[in-house]
């Protein structure tokens, strides 16, 4: 939340906070899930997952399409029921205390659901009215949020005239109108061009710095690396690993990766030959993964590995040395790529 926005608490939202049924001090965890499960008939979309999100933390669910990320978010947001397990959001049970939970959350769904008929400013004000916030207070709040979202110049524009990145920023501004404790973002930058993604990341980074708890889903490893203090890697409804981006990379991958291309049909055959060239002691070599278009040589010192490849007479068409990423962690854990 922008500092300026914090200075003027939402009056009606404050009432909602003081009417908390548990009445006690705010819990240290913003969200706690234990054995959280969601089944659709025979199909298990979320399979008994445990995690907690501390207040002020930026927490991610990283996984491919269909991993169960959105379903988990929908249970947190009190719009889908759970089949089994425990879930606590700001100390409340979303299933039993849906309206109270929703009053404490800002939700950014995968698809923008802005009111196309209204102007940018009106979108924020109307959304605030749903929370019962007074119109006069909302007029000032809308200006703060427009500034935060870098949309002041567009205040009177209609939503249909905005770019994709602007719409996304407006959706975030709108979700902040009730001064939520936790912001839920489902795939916040999917579909945006690189420049629009960076502008959005910058805004989210600002929110993170001012202490807003962020929970986001993504299948972009760079987004998770940029924004998350901690994340869970999910696949088929299960948690495969948990940790900080750098901790996960340290635990599950080598420091560096050598990417080699030998030409479409030769990669598998070359992988076998290179396994004979590179031994575990050499260059901190760990293993080779064969992808359809390239080989990934996992080694602590990839430049040294490349020297050894050359010294053994192998001539890749292209070679690239890079640091390991969360994509490599996912590949290691599941044998698959994050984006199929
Ligand atoms: N209402 C539903 N009825 C039946 N199956 C569903 C329903 N909603 C989701 N699923 C299934 O549950 C699984 C998890 O879906 P979910 O949307 O949570 O995945 P995701 O990780 O968020 O992926 P995406 O990024 O594609 O949304 C998918 O296989 C999906 O088809």
UniProtKB/TrEMBL annotation:
Residues 31-261 form the ABC transporter domain. Keywords: Antibiotic resistance, ATP-binding, Nucleotide-binding, Transport. Residues 1-28 are annotated as: Disordered. It is found in: Cell membrane. It comes from the Bacteria. The keyword Transport applies. It is a peripheral membrane protein. SMART domains: AAA (SM00382). GO terms for molecular function: ATP binding. Residues 1-22 have a biased composition (Low complexity). Belongs to the ABC transporter superfamily. This is ATP-binding cassette domain-containing protein. The lineage of its organism: Bacteria, Bacillati, Actinomycetota, Actinomycetes, Micrococcales.
């Amino acid at each position: 939340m922008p500092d300026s926005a914090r200075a003027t608490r939402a009056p009606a939202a404050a009432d909602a906070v003081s009417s908390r049924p548990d009445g006690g001090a705010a819990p240290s965890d913003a969200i706690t899930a234990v054995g959280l499960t969601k089944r659709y008939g025979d199909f298990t979309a979320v399979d008994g997952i445990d995690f907690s999100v501390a207040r002020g933390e930026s927490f991610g669910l990283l996984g491919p399409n269909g991993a169960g990320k959105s379903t988990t978010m929908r249970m947190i947001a009190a719009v889908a029921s759970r089949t089994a397990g425990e879930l606590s959001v700001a100390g409340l049970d979303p299933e039993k205390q849906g309206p109270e939970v929703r009053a404490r959350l800002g939700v950014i769904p995968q698809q923008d659901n802005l009111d196309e008929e209204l102007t940018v400013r009106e979108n924020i004000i109307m959304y605030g009215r749903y929370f019962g916030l007074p119109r006069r207070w909302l007029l000032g709040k809308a200006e703060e949020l427009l500034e935060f979202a870098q949309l002041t110049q567009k205040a009177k524009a209609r939503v249909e005239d905005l770019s994709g990145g602007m719409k996304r920023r407006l959706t975030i501004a709108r979700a902040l109108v009730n001064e939520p404790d936790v912001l839920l973002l489902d795939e916040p930058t999917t579909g945006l061009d690189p420049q629009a993604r960076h502008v959005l990341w910058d805004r989210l980074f600002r929110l993170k710095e001012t202490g807003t708890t962020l929970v986001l889903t993504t299948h972009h490893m760079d987004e998770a690396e940029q924004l998350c203090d901690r994340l869970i890697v999910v696949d088929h409804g299960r948690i495969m690993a948990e940790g900080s981006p750098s901790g996960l990379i340290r635990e599950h991958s080598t420091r560096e990766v050598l990417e080699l291309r030998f030409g479409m049909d030769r990669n598998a055959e070359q992988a076998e030959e290179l396994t004979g060239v590179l031994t575990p002691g050499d260059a901190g070599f760990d293993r080779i993964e064969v992808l359809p278009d390239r080989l990934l040589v996992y080694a602590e010192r990839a430049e040294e590995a490349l020297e050894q490849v050359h010294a053994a007479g192998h001539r890749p068409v292209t070679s690239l040395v890079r640091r390991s990423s969360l994509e490599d962690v996912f590949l290691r854990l599941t044998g698959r790529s994050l984006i199929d």
